[in-house]
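Chain A, query sequence.
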Amino acid sequence: MIEVIKSLNNFLWGFPMPTLLFGVHIYFTFRLKGIQKHTLKAIKLSVTPEKESEGDISGFAALSHTLAATIGTGNIVGISTAVALGGPGAIFWCWLTGVLGMATSYAECFLGVLFRRKTEDGTYLGGPMYALEYGLNQKWLAVIFSFCTLIASYGVGCSTQARAVTETAYRLWGLPEYLVGMVIAVLVGFVIVGGVKSIGKICSKLVPAMGIFYIVGCLIILALNYSFIIPSIVLIFRAAFLPEKLPAAVIGGFIGSTIRSAARYGIARGLFTNEAGLGSAAIAAAGAKTSHPSRQALISMSATFWDTVVMCAITGLVIVTNLLKHPFSVEGYSFAEFTTAAFHAIPYGEQLLGISLIAFAIATLIGWSYFGEKAVDYLFGKSAINTYRICYIIMIFIGSIMSLELVWELTDLVNACMALPNLVCLFLLRKLITPYDHP
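Chain A, predicted structure.
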């Protein structure tokens, strides 16, 4: 099964998906007049409550939803995987995916708010499925996207996170994987049963705290490795474009050492971690209290900035500076341990990283359960949500004991299937998306 999925992923992510994603990212960057220049404005708006606007949760809570679902194993295990499989150059492609992907994130969140619907109980529903149905009148595409979102919630949102937690807990403290899987399933279950407001409340508190905790640890390592920061940046750029000219001692041990493999794994992991083009951020944005689609779209766009432009870049630098300071072969290291090796430089660094990874993963488990619920609501109605929650909790346990290699390959495949209808929607409705022009 793994070999079949690998072959399919190698085709999809070898040329079609990277080309399509980069094409959409670049197109909206120009069409929206370089929307990335409003990043500081987006950050300011995210902490500025808007009065007398309709929605379920604040703009900051919606942003926290998105960050909870994106800032997770992709920033730690995902970047480590990208470097191990694609070489140091994969970090550049991952970072570039985040910079350009901010425009795509703005576009999909704009449509998410524009086509959202208010239900009989007063809550708001939105996202690519509603844009596909009410904007394009293509309900069949909306059904496909919703189904892919449902499957993705069990993969990118559930299995990868649960497996990362149990592997970390076993490596650090020798805790049985099945026992850890049961514990996190129960903990997450208590939160998601509370619904959107409960999820928003937890994410609003958990996301900033865990982000600061992790960044401080990374900055300490970079301070210790300060003399290797510039050489690491040079290496990342050289490996992205001229990997064949790097010394064998530098590139040796990496599975991937070509531009294609660097781009394939960098872009794939970039999409996994920031989800720009996937459409998930639009689902969260649709529930925000906002007076205009462009306002919340700008706020939600900043999630891609924090997740990839900041977090992934810092993680990548930590990994590469450690490789240059303490050269070692990546052979024999699991993907999570590759990042862990860098944290050995500080006292209790491995424990710090482990706690960060577990906190990130639990937040992602909570955030993605919300996306899955909205997909189930669209497909089957609210009566099916409780059944989904039970299945999601069970899947946390199953994912916690699955093969990590299989989980990652399945994640890449599902991401591609989810992104395609969303990107089609963005392109066909592009004329409805306007740049941010408010004071």
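The mean pLDDT is 83. The radius of gyration is 20 Å.
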